[in-house]
Amino acid sequence: MNAVETAVARSDAAERSGPQLRTILLTDLVDSTALVERLGDSAAAELFRAHDRLVLGLQQHWRGRLIDRSDGLLLLFERPIDGLGFALDYNRGLLELGNPHGVQLKARAGLHVGEVLTWRNSDEAVRVGAKPVEVEGLAKPMAGRLMAMARPGQILLSAVAEPLAHRAARELGERGQHLLWKPHGRWRFKGVPEPQQIFEVGEAGIAPLRTPPSTPKAWRDVPLWRRPMALAAEVALVAAIAVGMWFVTRPQPAIAFNERDWVMVADLNNLTGDTRYDDALEAALRASLEQSQYVNVVSDTRVMSMIAQMGHDPAKVAVDRDIASEVALRGGIRAVLLPTISDATGPVRVNIEVIDPHTQATVYTESAQGRGASSAITSLDEASQALRVRLGEGLDEIQANSKPLAQVTTGNLDALRAFTLAQSAYARQQLGEAQEHFNQALELDPGFALARIGLARVAYARMDAGTALQHMEEALAEPRRLSDREELYLQAQRLMYRWEPGFVERAVALSNLYPDYHVAAFNASNALRYANRYSEMRDYAGRASATLAVTRPAALFYRAISELALGRPDDAERSFAAAASAGFPDAFVEPALVAAARRDFERAGTMLAGVDGPPQFAIEARILRMTLLAEEGKWAEAGQMADGIVASFGEPESPSQWAARAAALAVHRHTRPTMEIRRHAQALVDAAALGLVKAPGRLRESLSNAALYAGYVAAGAGDQDTARQALALTRPVIDQAPAPVLANMAAIVRAQMDLEFGDPEAARGRIERFGGDPALLLTQMVRARTTRQDDRPATETLSWRARAFGEWSPERPPVLEVLSPPPPPER
To answer: What's the rounded Cα separation, in Å, for the pair 557 and 578?
Structure first.
């Protein structure tokens, strides 16, 4: 028996071995016969061939096994999310197929998970028309019933398939965040003894999102109280007996809440008249729930953004039951939490209602009470933990992973109020106001660690890394006042502020530990950018750009940067536009880099004219304008700008200023004689030697990059001493850098020195360990100089230019170096 026969035999044996749990999808193309009559045989045949290509592509993409097809399809999948992905793409693909022909193609679909039996038909049977593989089992007619009752364009799921698919919907990427899930109640199927819950899932504008019609084989399981008048007497009698019992034993309605589903917090219903509770208790409730790895909480910032998208003024609209339910439905949020506080001549009572946004009905309620205003935070925490149990989280998980709310926030209501005011000011980037309120919170509760973290963020936003680090250290000095997640977050941020080894790995590990902690995912994306690991950067930016994530605008912006660096400018442009639509400010140069990569200098210049932000943004815009002038061949104008930069930043103080000095040197390489180039390079290394004495954190890497670039230029101009000085100066920084990018640059400097000595083999040895995504683009240029002329990279290609501008950062060589390398200098 040969290998192929053996494989087939094993497959046959596996398929005959017994029932297997599979996801089964059945679809039916609506009115396919009428379609042939309308289009004619030739056009219809062409359309059906395109349909078959669509099915084949989707089957391969979603790892499906096509069992049968005619007007409909029968497919098996390993996982429900794969079957759902196929059905969604199939519906969308049908619409695209029909548009050129002026027809609207739609299919019904039914998705179920259950045991099936499969076996192969004999070759003889297949030759006379049998299917190669047969599928039987109760799952098949169940999926068939769902498909048969579905409306055109409708995807119906069984109660078994829905929670499995819903839980995994994030695997569909951004589209998964916009899916609409709708329950259609209990249905009875012919031949099935028990009623079945039916669900619909689909995309806005495609899915009908309407209750399916009853058929002879499937009908609504109508409750007794909704049946015809013939039962009125019986109902009245039963109701009379049961009414008293109902008030005693009435069950609360349930909500289909799954792990990692989203909840949002509505405005506090304050019945006490004490305004200190306003906002503060909402923030406390979020803080309590955010300790959970089971429940996701929509940030207040995202709620306000969604309200603005609905056409309301967030500052004037109360997020009550109605508005909160509308926001939840638009955002795919599973439940709304409505907190209420009241007092009754002594006891202060906190009440949290769980509201189903589809019906606005209260699903269940948890309450706690204590004496005096100071009891409110403790009562809120007690009710919150009880609520988490009701939503499905294990009590042992809550006890293991959560600390008392008054401990990880504050037990002082006034301090909590000051903290919420500070958070609001920080969100508006009113840094002075935010700092004042954070300080007020600390005066009222000196151990309030979250307020310390707030001050650190304010300092870092002001580019004061030293003060930010000091606040971080003070917060970490009181670990019992931090939740486990916040403590891990601070440890990762401390490494970033110090710019120490482990910073990148710690950021990635935190995001992997808390996959729905979008701040951690964004920080991981930021860390990976500095490490030049753009493929991973895009993945983590994608996590952080979830529809309901507070980090969505910035994460979309970072995703665009990674896409540009990966040589995908069209994707980058779309992501930059999405970031702007999500509210990311128009104050950065990066969107103009896409136009620059395409050599659309006019558009890039127009975009740079709109850059409006802190001084470092203006400096970056100045660098890019100078680079584009040089790219256009306007070297005299570029040289004048370079001279102005050197005069402006004789002693650079920020990463952007060091980047500006390096960029000016890149222009001088083209516009100055050799001896002057050497002087400029030496001056930059000398300035770096002075700056490194007191430079903190990230500034050390920006400064070292400028020094190493100056060494590279000096080596190319025949000044080996300055190159060696740059290498010696930066060695301590390289040894402590959190990523090998500086080491890559140092290897490039040494390779340039080897080339000047006429030793290309040694030069290749210097840089051979730097390759792939993380390697600086300049590495490829230096490697090309060590080989034959025809091995040189195509620097004018769009993908090359996109990568060049994607690497834009003060910790990278100037972009001009890899776009317009200068001719050998005259010696």
So the answer is: 8
Q: What are phi and psi of 173, to 5 degrees?
A: 80, -150
Chain centroid to Cα 133, Å, comes to 41
For the segment 427-440, the average pLDDT, to the nearest whole number, is: 88
Taking a C-beta distance cutoff of 8 angstroms, is the pair 167, 259 a contact?
yes
pLDDT digits (tens, 9 = 90+) for 708-738: 999 999 999 999 999 999 999 999 999 999 9
What are residue 629's phi and psi, to 5 degrees?
Answer: -60, -45
Could you give the CA distance from residue 321 to residue 519 in angstroms, rounded to a whole number? 28
Longest dimension (CA), the chain: 110
Q: What Cα–Cα distance (Å) separates residue 215 from each residue in 28, 29, 188, 675, 676?
A: 16, 18, 10, 90, 88
Instruction: Read off the amino acid at residue 202.
Output: G
772-822 per-position pLDDT tens digit: 889 999 999 899 888 865 455 777 789 999 999 999 999 999 999 999 776
Burial environment of residue 236 by CB neighbours within 10 A (0 to 12, 13 to 18, 19 or more) = exposed
pLDDT band at 222 (very low <50, low <70, confident <90, very high): low
Q: What is the dihedral of CA 413, 416, 418, 424, to 10 degrees?
A: -140
Burial of 339 per CB tally in 10 Å (0-12, 13-18, 19+) = buried
450 close to 431: Cβ distance less than 8 angstroms: no
**What is the residue-wise DSSP string for 503-530?**
HHHHHHHHHHHSTT-HHHHHHHHHHHHH
For the cut 60, the answer to whether the pLDDT of residue 101 exceeds it is: yes
State both tokens at 552: 């969505």
- The CATH number corresponding to 262-403 among 2.30.22.10, 3.40.50.10610, 3.40.50.720, 3.50.50.60 equals 3.40.50.10610
Could you tell me the sign of the dihedral formed by the alpha carbons of 685, 686, 687, 690, in that order? positive
- The verdict on pTM exceeding 0.70 is no
Q: What is the DSSP string of 634-683?
A: -HHHHHHHHHHHHHHTSS--SHHHHHHHHHHHHHHHHHS-HHHHHHHHHH
User: Which tokens hold the place of 733?
Assistant: 């920084």
Sign of the CA dihedral with 235 first, then 236, 239, and 241 last: negative
Torsion of CA 440, 445, 449, 451, to 10 degrees: -10
The winner for highest mean pLDDT among 61-75, 419-433, 437-451, 790-804 is 437-451
Given the structure tokens 């759902």, which residue do they identify?
A: 84
Could you say which architecture CATH assigns to the domain 409-498? Alpha Horseshoe (1.25)
In the predicted structure, residue 26 carries a pLDDT above the cut 60: yes
Per-residue pLDDT at 252: 46
Concatenating the DSSP letter of every residue in 312-360 gives --TTT----HHHHHHHHHHHT--EEEEEEEEESSSEEEEEEEEEETTTT
Band of the pLDDT at 1, cuts 50, 70, 90?
very low
Three-class SS of residue 52? helix
User: Is CATH 3.40.50.150 the classification given to domain 12-225?
Assistant: no
Q: Within 13 Å of residue 300, how many CA atoms lie on the same side as its CB?
A: 24
d(C-alpha 64, C-alpha 83), whole Å: 7
pLDDT at 705: 96
